[in-house]
Amino acid sequence: MAPIDNQNKPALRLVCLSDLHDAQQTVSVPDGDVLIVAGDICLEGRLAEVKRFDDWLGTLPHRCKLVIAGNHDWPFEIVGKGAAINLLKNAIYLEDAGIEINGVNFWGSPWQPEFCDWAFNLPRGPRLAEIWDGIPSNTDVLITHTPPYGILDEVFGEHVGCEALAVAVQRVRPKFHVFGHIHECHGVLKQGETTYVNASLHDERFCLRHQPIVLDLQDP
Ligand SMILES: [Zn+2]
Predict the structure, then answer these.
(1) Structural class in CATH, domain 12-217
(2) How is 5-52 classified by DSSP, letter by letter?
(3) How far is ligand 1, taken at its centre, from the CA of residue 97, in Å?
(4) Which of 31, 131, 154, 160 is 20 to 30 A removed from 63 (C-alpha atoms)?
(5) Ligand 1 centroid vs 132 CA: distance in angstroms?
(6) Would you state the pLDDT for residue 9?
(7) Distance of CA 111 to the CA centre of its chain
C-alpha cells in the first residue's frame, strides 16, 4: 500500500457559499475545516429564516462556521439585533470583526454601497472607506457581502462593486477575498496575491444554480 502523502494535505480547507436566501435545504455542501457564509441568509429578512438557517447549519460537519450578514439580512441590522445573533447557535457571526483559526486570520463585514435602502447600506465614498480602514493588515481571508469594484461585480455590463473596498483590498492583500451579493458573477478570479471568490449560489433570476466553492489554504 502506498504511504499517505501528508505533503499534499491542505492546511485548512475552506468551503464558501453566499446568498442562500432561505433556500438552503436543497444545497449540498462539501466537507471542510471552515464553512464561510458571505451574507444573504434571508430572502424576506425574518427571524424565522435565521432560525431555519441555523438549524440547517447544525446538520453540517464543518468544525468552524463563519457567517456575515448581507443586504437581505434585516434581523441583524435593526435595533434588537441580539435576537438574530442569539439564534445563530451553530456559527460565529462576524460584523466588522475577526477571528484566528489555526494561525489564519479571518475578517468579516456586511456593508455594501447604497442601493434601494437595503440592510447594511452605506453611501459610496468616505463612510464605506472608514469601515474598510478597520480591516487589519494581517487579514488572510477577507469576507464581505459586496465585491470590490471591478472584480466579479458586473450587472448589465456595469461594475457595481465598492470602490473603497477595492482600495482596502490592495492595502491588505489577503490570500482570499470571499463575497457574494452580485448574483450575476459567481466564480473565482486570481489577481496578484489575492484569489477573489464570488460564492453566490443564486443566479440573477433568483434560481439556486451554483455549488459552494472549495479553497485550500496550503501555507497559512
Ligand atoms: Zn443575494
Answers:
(1) alpha beta
(2) -GGGS-SEEEEEEB--TT-GGG------SEEEEES---SS--HHHHHH
(3) 22
(4) 131
(5) 21
(6) 57
(7) 11
